[in-house]
Amino acid sequence: MRSEALEDGVQQVRVKLLEQERTRGGLRHRGAWLATVAGRVALDAHRARQHERGLAERIRHRDPPAVSDQGRSAEQRELALVVAQALEGLDMEVRRLVVLRFYADLSVRQIAEQLDVPEGTVKSRLHAAMRSLRQRLRETEVV
């Protein structure tokens, strides 16, 4: 796994170098630039691993529903099913944004970085997705 992560990091640095040379026509201080970019790529990978560990830890420590919450738990399962069906009606890219934001608990900035799009694009697409979901849920009389 570590070897794959290292290879992925090296590949990301290579791609960034090619993009930089293509758009700017070269670098004056190539070594310094490479060191900076490699450090940032490593830091991003470290943060992503920490985030994944945090999610796994939160999931592991969730308490099972109490017996007295059986009715509420059934309602929650039904609501989750209705929301999942509404999500299926969204475009794949928009659905991906909603899942990253609300199920993977990524920030708008993290989503923008992961998808390589501006933060404003993520925000506007999420807003449109939520409006569409709200409409779908109103049609099923959930909201």
From TrEMBL:
Pfam families registered for this protein in UniProt: Sigma70_r4 (PF04545)
Location of the region described as Disordered in the Swiss-Prot/TrEMBL record: 52-72
UniProt GO BP: DNA-templated transcription initiation
Residue ranges, compositional bias (Basic and acidic residues): 52-64
Protein's UniProt keywords contain Transcription: yes
Any one GO molecular function term: DNA binding
Alphabetical UniProt keywords: DNA-binding, Sigma factor, Transcription, Transcription regulation
Gene3D superfamilies in UniProt: 1.10.1740.10, Winged helix-like DNA-binding domain superfamily/Winged helix DNA-binding domain
Domain RNA polymerase sigma-70 region: 86-135
PANTHER family: ECF RNA POLYMERASE SIGMA FACTOR SIGL, RNA POLYMERASE ECF-TYPE SIGMA FACTO
Family: Belongs to the sigma-70 factor family. ECF subfamily.
Name of the protein in its database record: Sigma-70 family RNA polymerase sigma factor
